[in-house]
Amino acid sequence: MKKSAAKEGKSASKLISEKITELGDWRGKTLNRMRKLIKAADPEVVEAWKWMGTPVWEHDGIICTGESYKKVVKLTFAKGASLNDPKHLFNSSLDGNVRRAIDIAEGVEINEAAFRARVRQAVALNSSAKSK
After folding, report:
1. Which are the contacts of 24, defined by CB distance < 8 A and separation ≥ 6?
2. Which member of 40, 55, 76, 86 has the lowest number of beta carbons within 10 Å of its beta carbon?
């Protein structure tokens, strides 16, 4: 994704869609699937495009980012260390005090209900912090 794309006045949603298309492989399909799950979990989610090409989903603050690498799609929850994770979705960035991430490799399926629950929990945490 070219840095100039954001300057052309394209919406974050459009830029994210273009990135998914540009990936053109399992990473694009995975990122698109996770995007749909995020939107299903929080219909009021706002999509943003930050840090020179990173999809971000927000609701009263950052819920998570979606990055694509050669071997994984990484969904990093901004306040993941504060979220309960009974299904053990978080499998990356486990040593930090704030963030937690889910690395999804090719062919790996995640528990969709548990993922939607983490998104809803992140929204509730953001909203509670905002109200204080």
Report:
1. none
2. 86
Q: Which residue from 8, 35, 32, 11 is spatially nearest to 22, judged by alpha carbons?
A: 32
CB 111 within 8 A of CB 87: yes
Place of tokens 């100039």: 4
Task: Delimit the domains of the chain by residue range.
Answer: 4-131
Place of tokens 């950052």: 62
Residue 92 has what DSSP assignment? B
Query: By three-state DSSP, how is residue 59 classified?
Result: coil
Q: Which of 49, 50, 47, 86 is nearest to 63 (CA)?
A: 47
| C-beta neighbour count of 28 within 10 angstroms | 16
pTM of the model: 0.89
- Helix extents (H) in the chain: 4-7, 12-23, 26-41, 112-131
CB proximity list for 7: less than 8 A, separation 6 or greater: none
Give pLDDT tens digits for 84-111: 999 999 999 998 899 999 999 999 999 9
